[in-house]
Amino acid sequence: MEIKFFNNDKERWKQEYEIRCKVAKLISIPSDSEVLDVLVGYADFSRVIVKSHNVKVTAIEIVDEDIKEAIRKIKKEKLQDKIKIIKMDATNMKFPDGTFDYVVNFIGWDDLIAFSGINAVEKVFSEMVRVLKKNGILLITFTPELKPVNYIQKMDKELEKFMWGGTKKSLPEKFFLDLFKKYNIKLLKKKILKTEKRINPKDGKGLIKWFCKDYPRWYPKIRFRSYNEIINKFGNFIDKYGIPPLIPHIEVLIGKK
Question: Which of 53, 58, 86, 195 could form a Cys-Cys staple with 29, CB 3.0–4.6 A?
Answer without folding.
Answer: 53
